[in-house]
Amino acid sequence: MDIRFLGGAEEVGRSAVLVNGSLLLDYGMKSATPPQFPVESPSPDAVVASHGHLDHVGALPSLLSGDDRPPIHWTPPTRELALTLARDTLKLHGGTYNCPFTEEEIKRVTQVSETHGYRETFEAADHQITFYNAGHIPGSAHVLIDDGDIRLLYTGDFHTEDQRLVAGTTARPAADVVVCESTYSDVTHGNREDLEEQFATSVRTTLWEGGTVVIPAFAIGRTQEMMLICEAHDIPCYVDGMGKQVTETLRQYPAFLRDGEALRRAKSHARFVTGRDGQRKRIAEKNVAIITTSGMLSGGPAMTYIPAIRGRPVNKIAMTGYQVEGTPGRELLETGRAEIDGRVMPISAQVEQYDFSAHTDQDGLRSFLESYRDTPILVNHGDRCEQFADELRGEGFETSAPGIGDTVSV
Question: Domains in the chain, please, with CATH?
Fold first, then answer.
């Protein structure tokens, strides 16, 4: 089996792995200025997508721009989320180099789509494929690929602990080689219940003191997780941005949720913002929590809420996810100011950071990989892939960290 890394190796973003020259695993884009895409535009016989995040499916429609029409295999939620992201990218960047596809290619995605549930083996490009719940976001999958000689496990992004939205992965299918993500290979998340309680206490305190809390959150997964937490702790909240549409989409697939009824209650508890900036500015004056995109303050309704609440020290901005270097969210955490819509703004409001990651941490990675101690492991999807591979090798694992463009034969 030949495994070629076209993106996502020694980096987070633009994941793309070509197996035996014919089966493509993911085809994402890296959020940067300008965006970055996989280093090659292959012509696969079939595509398999692990889950519906931009760094794994963001460039996928561009594969259909020529005469090729490879089938795209994924779970039902991943299909819907990928189409939502594609339409949003087209809306924001259509007609520029930042968007490598058109409305026509998005339509073609719907024509070649083939959906599958977990543990339902199917054939793609002469390989036997099986999805297993990866516990990352609804519909996320470990992908097991069998070419008749070698079984490759592509972990995709995964979490070994339960979140409110999805249950952690318990799948450990037998494999001859593993391509494993390593996003948080040097981080320990801490106890989730304690983190939730700390977050809820902080938010309730701000509201009691007469302040407003803005909660920047990724539209897919994180927005719904924060809604569930707010409902469980009886925190009044509004929800704005693309997360509203994603919430409605995910409610259609209760089988891929940990508790579909809980998400229904969270939706009933929250108020969805339907208006524009005028309504948003009025909401920003209320003693409420506001869950809104973008999670890194690089766009979305946060561009209205942050300027509206930034001047009062009683207000609070509660960051809920990793902030990529160079984003306004990272700048805010490091400097206390952020560039919002082209203006650098000092922030007097309190700023807090919470690790509600949907990725497993260093302990979860090691726990997962213990089932593959005698299996070659190819480390990818991380900022320190080589270091993590070295650490695992020191613990007796057979590991390596391929670079972009590398081909590994097993």
Answer: 2-186+358-409 (3.60.15.10), 192-353 (3.40.50.10890)
